[in-house]
Every structure is written in structure tokens, then in C-alpha cells.
Amino acid sequence: MDRENVSATLTVAVPAARVFAVLADPKTHSAIDGTGWVQKAADPAPLTEVGQIFRMDMYHPNHPDGDYQVANQVEVLDPPRAIGWLTGQEKDDGHLEFGGWTWRYDLVPRGPSETEVTLTYDWSAVPQFIREYLQFPPFGPEHLTNSLHHLAELAAPTSRAGTADG
After folding, report:
1. Order of strands, sheet of 96-109, starting from the edge strand that comes earlier in the sequence
2. Domain ranges of the chain
3. Dist CA 44 CA 28 (whole Å)
4. Which CATH number fits domain 5-155: 3.40.50.300, 3.30.530.20, 3.40.50.150, 3.40.630.30?
5. Which end of the chain is more exposed for a tag (fewer CB within 10 A), N or C?
6. Cα 115 to Cα 14: distance, rounded to the nearest angstrom
7. InterPro entries, from UniProt (predicted)?
């Protein structure tokens, strides 16, 4: 495979600002995830600036510990058009190391109540030593589409996600 990214696009019946608000809330990320690996936000504060770090508790049966945590750094924050982050981990000394893969959502309004959402997973910056023990992409092609459908459900006007009660 020559491509070093995969993407999926879905048009949702939700305004771009609402979709962006759901994506900027780490507490919704486990519900958006199409793999089931994202468990919960360890840093639940909304994403508000480039460079911000937010951690997520994860689970993967093939991970040496099963349960683990990733540290993400916001790389793109352009409300309500784009949001994206690098994924890595925090070492015991507090130093952050990023693996070279990114998640990015691009939002294109298609009228007052519709948004075209493209989710891209890019591993083009992953160094060779990581590629020797991790396969890219580490999930099947349905993952991105599943994630976009979950996002659409969460962002729907009838959803309680992101409300004080939900």
C-alpha cells in the first residue's frame, strides 16, 4: 500500500458548530470511537487551543498491559471547520512521545443544518522502528465509517451528549 492515510466522509444532518462541539469534548470520544478501544477521557476539559494535551484511557487486547493511556496533542483547531491531534504516550519522567500518527476531522457546512464530515487517519510520519512492530492502519476499513455514524448520532439535535445532564 502506497497510501499512508485512510479517510471516510459522511454528510450529517447537523450544523457544523454542533458537530465541532461534540468533537472538541473529549468525554464524547469513547462513544465516537468505532473500534471500542477508547474507554474514557482522563482529561475531560474541552479542546480549546493548539498544543493542548488531553489523555484518554484505552483498552486493547493485544496491548501488553491491556489497559493503557494515550496522550494526544491538539494539532489543528479551527472551529467549526477542522480539529485534529497527534497521538502518543507520556513516559514515566513526564516526557511526551508521539508515534507519528494523527486523527483529523474536516467539516464542510452544506447548508444551515447539514455538514460533510471527513475523518482522516494519517500515519505518514511514523518512523520505521515503530512500523516494525505496529501495522498501519491498526484497524479495519469500517472503523472510520463507524466512527462517523457514531458522531452523527451523538451530534443529532435529539442527543443528550454534551448537555449538563448527559
Report:
1. 5-12, 115-122, 96-109, 82-90, 67-78, 53-59, 38-41
2. 5-155
3. 9
4. 3.30.530.20
5. N
6. 6
7. Polyketide_cyclase/dehydratase (IPR019587), START-like_dom_sf (IPR023393)
